[in-house]
Amino acid sequence: MKKVITLLLLIACCSVAQAQNPVGRFTVYPKLGLNLSQMSDDGIFLGGTDYIATTQMKQGFTGGAEIAYQFMKPLSVSVGAMFSNQGTKFHDFSITADDSYERWSDMKYTMNFLNIPIMANLYVANGLALRVGVQVGFLLQSQFSSRVETGQKVQEQWQTEVVTTKTDMSNILNTVNFSLPIGISYEYKNIMLEARYTFGLTNPFKAESGLNSKHQVITFTVGYGIDL
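The chain above was modelled as a monomer; its predicted structure follows.
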């Protein structure tokens, strides 16, 4: 029995070793992918009202590159530079009265970041790695967009107006954010598929804004390894 267990352990170790790059090698991974981002809604107010918005997933693009160094057979470390389109969408809502109404729709925060993830990658099986690290994000551009329809009842007739707005948010956002990314990847013949979840550690809003939230981003990427 001991011999069987020892043999299985040796086979597993050899499989892991074969899946990795040689120790001391650098590999660059250009990557493209999809973000599914959302912000926690524990303190986001909209429209100059006391309404606390409820958020939902927003789709966005991500792309860039990471460079990995095979530190030892089961472990590599990597650092990346990734453009990330993230933020959040909001559920529609209305404020109504007997003679007036206000309907908010198509609301979303769009935030573009340059993210720098630093990851430790532990290979647990042939081509399969668990990833964890830290990430700093630098805000490049931000915008709040919405569609607001207002109605006023005048002499039994409704008068309506629709306004579409796009507002720069840079005056209420911090330019640097910190996050904790965790994920899993699989590599086969230099092609790497990865799923990663990144949750914010810091409030993206400035303290004086009175807003409080955290970034939450699910990312799916495909990359190709180029040995240096």
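Residues 2-19 form the longest helix (18 residues).
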